[in-house]
Amino acid sequence: MQTETVDPDRPVPISLTKTFEASIHEFSNFGVEATSLEQISTATGVPTERLSKTFHDTANLFSNVVKWYLTRYEHQILSGFAMHSNPIEAIRIALYECIELFCEDDCPHGSLLSVELMEITDTDGVIAKEMNHLKEQVHGRIFQKLENCKRRFTTGFKPDELADFYTEVMVILIKQACDGVDRVDLYNLADASLERLENQPVIH
Prior knowledge:
The chain is mostly helical.
């Protein structure tokens, strides 16, 4: 299915954030295929004609919703990388951000929105495709951070293997957070995973 991505530089005469938040709730409750632009219009107060002009149909709207939110999640997860030269703390922040984003709580504009998004039935594989893109971006940033500091470690230090490992830890944290695992247990898992990096032999 061909979808059109909304150009963020093109003026759009509606509130995207409001529309996308309401859309997630509708898609979560009724499924993508069973949700109409009329339903989104009722939920947001945005006229159906304006929704149709901007997104054409619900499939294209859903694709834009997923890309919008996962791009925001990517930026939030990776926000601490530039601030920390220490790879352990940089990765810790990324793992903690995953927990905060996807650990369900009572805030309707916080992590509950993330959980709803991830639980939507996605027959076209839009979420899976964008999640793979998120994994690739996180993996690349982790690898680069580890590669940049490998001179601190002995010759057995392998940035590629560690990047693979911490990317998979991130995936596990997201899945367990969406499954309702207590956030304290998730923080403990994140901290325990960092022992692998902390125990890497360094050059004295």
